[in-house]
């Protein structure tokens, strides 16, 4: 059975744009995550001492689902072999 993974991203925002950025995340990122196969949940954390310092956490069912979410539309990822660069290939 594949192991779930957690991916983190760190953002240091312009303090004057934090509320706007958070609203964009709620309006666009959140709904997009619901559509992602294997995305179990995501959450945002902001530093109490610096609200413009934000951490994003994503929990994925497995690495393959995370990798697939970053593949170009209509492409698939492959496991590299000695004769394969591992680049995405059109389906």
SSE diagram, text form:
Layout: E1 5-12, H1 18-35, E2 39-47, E3 50-60, H2 63-69, E4 75-76, E5 89-90
Antiparallel strand pairs: 1-3, 2-3, 4-5
Account of the 3D structure:
The chain is an alpha+beta fold. It has a single domain (5-72), classed as Alpha-Beta Plaits. Helix content is 27%, strand content 35%. The chain contains two helices and five strands. The strands form two sheets. A three-stranded antiparallel β-sheet has the order 1-3-2. The longest helix has 18 residues, at 18-35. The model is unreliable at 76-91 (pLDDT under 50).
List keywords for this structure.
91 residues, alpha+beta, Alpha-Beta Plaits, three-stranded antiparallel sheet, two-stranded antiparallel ribbon, 2 helices, 27% helix, 35% strand, disordered C terminus
Can you summarize this structure?
By secondary structure, the chain is an alpha+beta fold.
**CATH class categorisation:** Alpha Beta
CATH architecture label: 2-Layer Sandwich
Order of helices and strands: EHEEHEE
Tell me the Rg in angstroms. 16 Å
Total number of domains: 1
